[in-house]
Design a protein that fits this description.
Length: 464
Amino acid sequence: MTATISPSGSVPAEAEAFLDAYPEIEAFDIVLHDANGIGRGKIIRRHELLSFYKNGRHLPISILGLDICGEDVHETGLIWDQGDGDLRAWPIPGSLVPLHGTNPPRGEVLMSMYDLDGNRMSSDPRHALQRQVDLLAGEGLKACGAFELEFFLLANQRGPDGKVQPARDVLDGRASSKTEVYSVDHLHGMLPLFSDIYAGAEKAGIKAETMISEYAPGQYELTLHYREDVLQAADDLMRLKRIVRAQARAHGVTACFMAKPVEAYAGSGMHFHVSLLDGGGGNVFVEAEEGVWNPTILHALGGLKQTMGESMLVFAPHANSWRRFAAQSYAPVSPSWGVNNRSVALRIPAGDIRARRIEHRPAGVDANPYLVAATVLAGIRKGLAERIDPGPETTGNAYAETAGATPIPVDWRSAIVAAQGSGFLKDALGEDMHRTFTAIKASEYARVARTVSEVDFDLYLHTV
């Protein structure tokens, strides 16, 4: 069979070199990510890899129209409206890596979806981000960034009250129900697991950096090295979540990426650090004169503030996401900006002004980083184009300064309605991705709304 030119830019030589370098690898996970950030795909055998690089792999169009349970959402228009025909997935160049600790040895490659003519499939979240990257490039700008990964390590079994409980240390089985924030000694009990996470990240070409014991029992944060390619930064986050989940499972505990698994403590965010470079590689957010803010970063902040309400469904896409937003819980409750202030939604970190960046804090770790980054970049583009004023800096407690702030949705349903009617979000994600994403979220909301929960029985069974 004659090889087809890959629209993703992948080449068979990459697969050939990898197979030569890793003769022990027997199979490969081929993975693309849907609107919820769930990895969908197949496990192929070693002898199939080269064919995948030469000809792509047929996958049904419906794979990008699934809800959180993996069921079809007909309102996306991706199912019977188009006959659920096959499209073709192609490898993402440079994403072929060995997996750590697999037996028998396996590799992994990320992929994106294209139609049979080689055009980008516009309901693929990675293509939504690529579109914003291309639009910025047309304006002479390049987006750089990194995500922070917060997560919980939980015991595989629930506690006597039926609720989740922190995992015991994998080193010696020691248990702790304390917050242990920034405790170095507390980290030692999980070192065997963390060592495997770092080993997996290194094999995948991910520069995982600092590990922190975070602000809840069993909660941790892993930081990632800043990338000059924001697509690579999102790939890093997606791949690192899979590594953490797999290594936690291998050590007998559960890695949890829910935004709010424990009601009494802070939830898990996915802060996105972003900056822009000009054609010469200079950071356009850097102020020319110390003490005087660069108008470019101010306009970027203005665009992000103005569009935050319409965008909250991307940052908080699930029912559980909205339990994270509470005063004094390190999750912002209003559009605000400030310097070296963790109560605001848009934080400018202190430090070397040459590394000036915006830390976008609303997104939970359950959000899709491709869609988060696409929406943030679109907000920045809007702010720069329209020279939007962000208003005064918040210098105190942003949780106490919500009066007069631009309103944002207060619950999941309101966020869905705001997103469905948002012209900005349609531009940020592209018309097809916007339709797919909002239809999936509306379907999931209906599923949750009709479910009778244990809370209902607890509150009402014997009282009304």
